[in-house]
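Friendly challenge for the regulars: who can give me the structure tokens for this chain first? No prize, just bragging rights.
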Amino acid sequence: MKKEVGLWMDHRKAVIVVITGKAQETKVIISKVEKQLRRSGGSPLKGPHEVQQVPADDSRERAFTGHLNIYYDAVIACIRDAEAILILGPGEAKAELKKRLKGEKLDGRIVGIETVDKMTDRQIVARVRQRFLN
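First reply, four minutes later:
Bragging rights claimed.
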């Protein structure tokens, strides 16, 4: 039976709708990525910073990238066996996922990438059903 997947994603959350025949399943994956990486330590107004209190920007970037890699791996694990993939979302995460899918040799299964703003889970399900069941 044909398995079609549509997902809405940004860097914080992915809503995955799996359609198999007339049945559907919805999965949500939450990333552990902080949108605004914070520096640890006190405020500069409260006293001097010590070098150890302020992580280097490159270490913060590596942590951010590491969390994103784990998140994308979880998303790909859910959609790997799909025959058709529709990707929806507001920002950069769509293109980043497409690049990861290309690295996994799954980019040929992508049937569309659409830029859409925030959507409720019900709106996502309706959009995916409209795309694949019509």
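The longest strand covers residues 13-20. The beta strands are 3-9, 13-20, 23-30, 84-89, 110-115. Your move, everyone else.
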